[in-house]
Design a protein that fits this description.
With about 850 residues, this protein is mainly beta. The protein has 5 helices and 60 strands. The strands form 13 sheets. Strands 1, 2, 3, 5, 10, 11, 12 and 14 form an 8-stranded antiparallel sheet that branches. A hairpin with a 5-residue loop joins β2 and β3.
């Protein structure tokens, strides 16, 4: 009998011990054994493929729970993981019962303690259930659980004195933050541990995940507190974060805190009212900016009376400067997926020698900016991924991630991105395009753009290329294309514009050094124009606005000169690249601008271009000029603005419009590389014929050319890649004789400079003159055709022009019964009526004119057709 009694006692002791503490990570694929969980509706819960306990209830406005036996209630520690993939509310939250008197967590008679995650305040808090009534005993910080995907670990401890400590680790950073302390000994026993879910609509179904439950005996703390971090909140205030709550008296003794570099001892110390692991310090001396400092802590005790001796932490008071943090990787087009998640993101790198807190920083583009970044210490030479909150679970395996609200959508083809510090300073900006990939395959998606040299952050396309990492990018670590790539491009003043008589904007080819750019003495304007201030304009740091005290005059061209100005790499502008013209622009009217050259049938890997020429004496603004074409019905279409900002075109200046500047520079000689406008999409121009139309801001036609491939030189067998050039700026735009194929000697095009076939009307005084005396129709750009200039006494003359060889045989009927103006010209290309080459020799140009009044006149002119060797 005694042996049987002893056996029963041993069995009872073992059973009680087994339910006094437990762990469960669900790696066995079920919740029914080891330990055994119970629920009124087994279908409400599953263990998912990731071996997590997941809700499976799909009933509207329901409460459902699951419990497991547990008798540990005092001197205990509770740990668990949870993920709530929704925004919590007053009808959608979770209660995790640490202790419960009964298995039915919803029963009025059930008592115990539970952690509430969510509810109206979106917080983590500790509650006591006194039967029908519930009491919040630790009120957690509001809005800590306020995203659409909340991932956290929770730890609760209860010591022998019944002091409770509630801590949470949101985002799985590895560091717990205390929500507060409370002493409560109302209930000293427990029968069950459990989870109670409250949900309303289908939006919240199956979105509750739990894992890594552990209930164990609390081991008293014998370790002193440690300093986790130190971060500045102003020029002389510092927050110290400890790894556990600290004693109020010793934490608030200011003499326990000292900062290096002569800052000295704190003059005030206050423990945070809601988080006893944080102490706010104030110093009587300002922290030196952008300098590594160290705080030393002595004499601070934790709640178990353990004393910290010589605890230290490094920090710096950071004032934002250009390029202290740079955008060094961009995933703008994640599909098709190569090896990284289907999500857009950017990566930031700290280029300084000290850690920087990203609290309040934002990512933006011209259409808007993100919400502020959370507190995150970005260490020197380290990286962090920034994305929308929904992408955090996808990108977390690759490195540290910061979620922001309203993360800007990244255009696949290009965007202007900027990084803004809390004080408003634009620290870095990137104006990327898909040409930066330098790889036609990778630009179609799945690959990131990586910065080559973070020490050269402002060189644009020359410092970026597609990642070469097999995954498609390197989020959270050094770029795969990382290399030394110094800035070798000289700073240049590209252009200047004036929005009014007192404000001038200068545009440079690359970002400027902010200190030298702000120096008024670096700028001067001719004719005694005085400059009173300089203001940076662009987020790319490549533009400044000059405010004048002396107004600019109309119909006058000035010269702006820049001296001793540096780019962001420290290169000083040279004297050969430091000037630009400026003046007040006029209204663009008919024939002020003419179409001067057209490439409508480019090579297979080339691009169309249209060259315009300012034939007026006015300064014109290309922001007020549009390019267009005509559709099949004859209506004007594809109207495209040449520039979204002020861009001046001076008298007798050229400008070339294309979709691919680099292709034009590759295929042709370009004497003025700055005389280009690259459009994302320009009007289409057919390879055989079409219309090039220039409009002003009122929609008035300034010039129109209805071109045809038949206007090309007849002996050119393939006009692909050959531009049509205007012969005379003042000649009629739709006269085929005023157009000719560009010469072979200039590679069949002269974008940005005077045409190879240009010939001005010299103001002929006689009735018929022919020039040159000797011509060679070989399309080499020198005397390729003969021009027959005429001046008649009046209007209404009809002309017949016939070409005879030296034997008197007609070889070309150049004009037949052609109505002529008072003044004009005809052109002969040296071919016969069958478009065949003629032999070298002397030819007679016989011209006969008459009018309806019976007046006639005949002219004979000789010309020599030659062939150049």
């Amino acid at each position: 009998m005694i042996k049987k009694l002893l056996f029963c006692i041993v069995v009872l002791f073992v059973n009680l011990s087994s339910i006094a503490q437990f762990t469960d990570n669900f790696n066995d694929g079920n919740y029914t054994v080891n330990p055994a969980w119970s629920t009124p509706a087994p279908a409400d819960w599953i263990v998912n493929p990731a071996f997590q306990l997941q809700s499976n209830n799909t009933t509207l406005n329901s409460n459902f729970y699951i419990t497991t036996p547990n008798t540990l209630a005092t001197t205990a520690q509770w740990d668990f993981y949870t993920q709530l993939s929704f925004s919590t509310s007053g009808s959608n939250y979770v209660d995790v019962f640490l202790t419960s008197s009964a298995t039915d967590l919803t029963a009025n008679a059930t008592t115990g303690y539970f952690v509430r995650i969510g509810n109206t305040d979106d917080e983590v808090s500790l509650w006591r259930k006194d039967g029908v009534n519930t009491v919040k005993i630790i009120d957690g910080a509001n809005a800590t659980i306020n995203s659409s995907n909340n991932i956290l670990r929770v730890r609760v401890t209860r010591n022998a004195s019944n002091t409770w400590n509630l801590s949470r680790d949101i985002g799985l950073t590895g560091s717990y933050i205390s929500e507060g302390l409370v002493t409560d000994a109302t209930f000293l026993t427990s029968a069950f541990f459990g989870v109670l879910v409250r949900q309303s609509t289908a939006t919240f179904f199956q979105r509750h995940f739990f894992d890594d439950f552990e209930v164990k005996a609390f081991v008293p703390d014998v370790t002193p507190p440690a300093v986790v971090s130190a971060s500045t909140t102003s020029v002389n205030t510092l927050d110290i974060v400890f790894n556990e709550p600290v004693d109020l008296v010793t934490a608030q003794q200011a003499s326990n805190y000292t900062v290096s570099n002569g800052v000295g001892t704190a003059i005030a110390a206050v423990r945070d009212a809601s988080n006893p692991s944080i102490v706010h310090l104030t110093f009587g001396v300002s922290f030196p900016a952008n300098t590594n400092l160290q705080v030393t802590v002595n004499g601070v005790k934790d709640l178990s009376n353990n004393t910290l001796i010589n605890g230290t932490a490094s920090f710096s008071y950071f004032t934002a400067t250009q390029y202290s943090i740079v955008i060094d990787e961009i995933m703008a087009d994640p599909t098709p997926v190569v090896g990284l998640p289907d999500a857009e993101w950017i990566e930031l790198k700290n280029t300084t020698g000290f850690a920087i807190n990203l609290l309040g920083w934002r990512i933006g583009k011209p259409s808007g900016q993100s919400g502020p970044m959370p507190s995150y210490i970005l260490k020197t030479d380290s990286f962090v991924i920034v994305c929308t909150s929904s992408a955090v679970p996808l990108l977390s395996p690759f490195g540290p991630v910061i979620p922001v609200t309203s993360f800007p959508s990244l255009s696949n083809t290009g965007d202007l991105l900027y990084l803004r510090a809390p004080d408003g300073l634009i620290v870095h900006a990137v104006n990327y395009t898909d040409n930066w990939y330098r790889n036609e395959l990778k630009k179609d998606g799945g690959w990131t753009l990586e910065m080559i040299d973070p020490r050269n952050p402002c060189s644009g396309s020359s410092n970026w290329m597609a990642s070469v990492d097999p995954k498609g990018g390197t989020p959270g670590k050094k770029n795969s294309v990382d290399a030394v790539n110094p800035d070798t491009v000289s700073l240049k003043l590209i252009r200047a514009s004036a929005s009014d008589s007192l404000n001038v904007v200068l545009t440079f080819n690359e970002p400027l050094d902010s200190s030298s750019a702000a120096n008024v003495g670096a700028y001067s304007i001719s004719d005694g124009i005085n400059i009173i201030s300089v203001l940076p304009l662009s987020v790319l740091f490549d533009r400044v606005q000059l405010r004048l005290s002396t107004p600019l005059l109309r119909n006058k061209i000035y010269t702006v000169t820049v001296s001793n100005l540096k780019d962001c790499s420290g290169n000083t502008i040279s004297s050969s690249r430091n000037t630009a013209r400026i003046g007040l622009y006029e209204h663009t009217d008919s024939f002020d601008i003419v179409v001067n050259e057209i490439l409508f049938n480019p090579k297979p890997n080339g691009s169309d271009y249209v060259e315009l020429y300012n034939r007026s004496n006015k300064i014109l603004n290309l922001r007020n000029v549009y390019l267009a074409n005509r559709g099949t019905t004859g209506s004007i279409g594809s109207i495209t603005q040449l520039s979204a900002e002020d861009r001046l075109l001076f008298p007798q200046e050229f400008i070339v419009i294309t979709e691919d500047v680099e292709a034009i520079k590759r295929d042709f000689i370009t004497l003025n590389p700055d005389a280009f406008i690259e459009l994302t999409s320009m009007p289409s121009y057919n390879d055989d014929d079409g219309s090039v139309i220039v409009l002003n801001e009122q929609g008035k036609i300034i010039d129109e050319v209805d071109y045809s491939e038949k206007w090309h030189f007849k002996l050119i067998s393939n006009n692909e890649g050959v531009a049509l050039e205007r012969i005379d700026y003042d000649g009629a735009s739709n006269n085929p004789d005023n157009w000719h194929s560009a010469a072979a000697s200039v590679n069949y095009g002269t974008p940005t400079y005077k045409n190879s076939q240009y010939r001005v009307d010299a103001g002929v005084k006689g009735e018929i003159t022919v020039s040159p005396e000797v011509f060679s129709p070989d399309n080499d750009g020198m005397d390729d055709f003969a021009t027959i200039d005429y001046v008649f006494a009046g209007a209404g003359y009809v002309a017949n022009v016939t070409i005879f060889d030296a034997s008197g045989r007609p070889v070309r009927y150049l004009q037949r019964n052609t109505l002529s103006g008072i003044k004009g010209f005809y052109r002969w290309d040296g071919l016969d009526d069958k478009n065949q080459k003629l032999a070298v020799g002397i030819y007679i140009i016989y011209t006969e004119i008459f009018n309806l009044e019976g007046k006639t006149k005949k002219f004979k002119n000789t010309i020599v057709l030659a062939r150049r060797k």
